[in-house]
Design a protein that fits this description.
mainly alpha; two-stranded antiparallel ribbon; 23 helices; disordered N terminus
């Protein structure tokens, strides 16, 4: 029997520390006993390779696991290590997936596994490949991108859920991944996702709740992507059979547009200054950066965003625009508005709102959207004013009245 006479010898590492035998059980056959653990030698591997031809599947799987763990956990001489690696490679051809699954379980998290074995297991049938694709540190980004491109939905989701997902790999998943993979990627805190990848996922799958909801919940999502998702949600609701039955197509379209405009103004509140330019360009390309939208932003006190809009439209420096908004005279401001393409009819109400928000910022006044919109309406002639501009300002004022009344009622109810 192989190994007889060696049982009393306790192998030690070079510093005298004993090896730990991770596998106490043995696999028996008519040819003798194959001891699993750190005591692998060339003769044992040779015996093992002959033994597997007659062993049962369960025995081969246990032996494959033991051999793999001994390979990655033991300090073997070079010749023995080569023999063990050859045996592991040969086991890839085993007809039973249970044997290859045992290899995958043992080797999937090791940095020292044979790379050719890991590569072959990653290309095996799904239940075998899953462990390696999800955990192996030996698979490069190029390997994983190839699997994403060629893989099925389950494979993509496994890769997207790896403990660490690099930016290039995340970009590949965002570009060609199925919705389930993209949702898993966004939910993965170990994934490094670039803004452009967020944008591609929003463009490709933003109409699906499976992807849209985790995207909106992610604090890393750029503001222009949030706006895109708001629009996609509005389009989904507009096309709902229930909404169409209750409102009709024309009214549903109008309600959706108004809701998106209001949501866009609210979105600005959570948008960082450095994201303003991207959001403005996104709105401009969509045709949503209209005069009415700009008036809404200044009426709601979004002066910083208003300034960023003027920088983009007037092609003026940020320093100059900021200085004019903070303390510029009316003539200089009107010239700035003209260079930004704002119609002269809008200048008066914008100046009126800007002066109020200046006083609020300097601590000389307490005011909100309700008061500012009322003063803007008075600039146009009050409640009796007519025209598109007056209608817009009236709607802003009525929305502010309704919102303030709702807040007051809730405060009374909570008292």
């Amino acid at each position: 029997m192989i190994g007889v006479g060696c049982a009393s010898i306790k192998p030690v590492k070079k510093y005298g520390e004993p090896f730990v035998n991770h596998f106490r059980h043995t696999v028996s056959s008519g040819a003798g006993t194959f001891r699993q653990g750190a005591q692998l030698v060339g003769m044992v591997v040779s015996h093992f390779l002959k033994w597997i031809d007659t062993a049962r599947v369960s025995e081969r799987a246990a032996a494959a696991s033991a051999l793999a763990r001994a390979y990655i956990n033991s300090e073997l001489p070079f010749e023995d290590r080569c023999a063990a690696e050859a045996a592991l490679t040969l086991l890839l051809d085993d007809a039973s997936c249970k044997v290859r699954l045992a290899l995958a379980e043992a080797l999937s998290m090791s940095h020292h596994a044979p790379p050719q074995v890991i590569s072959a297991l990653a290309a095996d049938q799904p239940e075998v490949a899953a462990l390696v694709l999800a955990r192996s540190p030996l698979l490069t980004d190029a390997d994983l991108v190839e699997r994403v491109a060629c893989g099925q939905k389950a494979t993509q989701k496994l890769i997207a859920s790896r403990p660490v997902v690099s930016m290039p790999l995340a970009a590949a998943i965002a570009e060609i991944g199925e919705p389930e993979a993209c949702a898993a990627l966004v939910a993965n805190s170990g994934a490094e996702i670039a803004s452009v990848s967020f944008r591609r996922m929003a463009e490709r799958h933003g109409h699906l709740p499976l992807v849209r909801e985790p995207l909106i919940a992610d604090h890393r999502l750029p503001a222009d992507c949030r706006h895109m998702l708001l629009v996609k949600l509005g389009e989904t609701l507009k096309g709902s059979p229930l909404v169409l039955a209750m409102m009709g197509a024309a009214r549903a379209d109008r309600v959706m547009r108004d809701a998106c405009v209001k949501a866009s103004v609210t979105l600005i509140e959570g948008t960082r200054m450095e994201e303003h330019a991207a959001l403005i360009e996104h709105l401009r390309l969509r045709g949503d950066l209209t005069a009415s939208f700009i008036i809404r932003t200044i009426a709601h006190g979004k002066v910083d965003f208003f300034g960023s809009t003027l920088v983009a439209l007037a092609q003026q420096s940020e320093q100059r625009v900021t200085a004019l908004l903070a303390g510029g005279h009316d003539v200089a401001l009107q010239a700035l508005f003209r260079s930004a393409g704002l119609a002269p009819a809008t200048h008066g109400i914008i100046l009126r709102a800007l002066k109020v928000w200046r006083e609020v910022a300097n601590g000389r006044r307490v005011a909100g959207v309700q008061e500012v919109s009322w003063l803007m309406l008075k600039e146009l002639g009050g409640q009796s004013a007519e025209g598109d501009l007056a209608t817009l300002v009236k709607s802003i004022h009525l929305d502010a009245l309704r919102e303030n009344a709702r807040g007051h009622a809730l405060a009374i109810a909570a008292a």
